[in-house]
Structures are given as structure tokens and as C-alpha cells.
Amino acid sequence: MVTKTELIDAVAEKTGLTKKDSGEAVNAVFETIVDYLSKEATKKEADRDNVQIIGFGTFEARDRSERKGRNPQTGDEITIPARTVPVFRAGKSFKDSVEG
Fold first, then answer.
1. Are 90 and 57 in contact (CB under 8 A)?
2. How far apart are the C-alpha atoms of 80 and 71, rounded to whole Å?
3. β-strands 51-53, 67-70 pairing
4. How many CB atoms sit inside 10 A of residue 51's CB?
5. Most buried by CB count within 10 Å: which residue of 29, 41, 56, 85?
């Protein structure tokens, strides 16, 4: 597992930026994606745009409808409320790189 600090260190090494500048850049990317999907979560799913990074993947917010579930301790049926969840789909070149 790679931590955020290790990711920042790797970005600093690859770009020649200071660790502070790399940290700000990494944080800015993450915050921008979260902010965009949070704002987009207020729209209907059909009207939403995705955060697409060609060659890497797509971030999107998807609506999950209300559904039935079971309490694992008691076995009682419960209703799981509808909500919006973040989803990441890896791009083809990302998948190919991971596959080897």
C-alpha cells in the first residue's frame, strides 16, 4: 500500500518540485475531483458530467436506489436508503499497464 505521503514523495522526485509544492499539487487534484463530484451529486445522474482523464480513468457520481438488506446480527430485513456514491473506472491504458 502506498500512502499519500509516499505518493507526494514520488511526485516530487519525478517532477523535481519540492515536497511542499508536490503536496499542494496532489491535494489540489484530489480536492478538485471531490469538489466537482460533490457539486455534480446535486444533479440528476443523466445530466451529470464525469471527470475523465484520458489514459487513466473516469471518476463519476452514481445514484444508488433504495434497496432491502438484512441486519447481519439479527437477520431482520432493513431498508438501505438511496444515496449518491463515487465510482472510478480505470481507462484502457491503465488496465493494460496493470495487467502487465
1. yes
2. 10
3. unpaired
4. 18
5. 41
User: Which tens digits make up the pLDDT trace of 58-73?
Assistant: 999 888 999 999 999 9
C-alpha cell at 22: 508536490
Which residue do the cell numbers 438484512 mark?
A: 70
Distance separating alpha carbons of residues 62 and 79, to the nearest angstrom = 19
8 Å CB contact between 18 and 12: yes
52 CA to centre of own chain: 11
- pTM for this entry: 0.76
Burial group, residue 33, by CB count within 10 angstroms (0-12, 13-18, 19+): middle
Element (H, E) at 7: helix 4-15
Reduce the DSSP state of residue 72 to 3 states and report it: coil
Q: 50 exposed, middle or buried (CB, 10 Å; 0-12, 13-18, 19+)?
A: middle
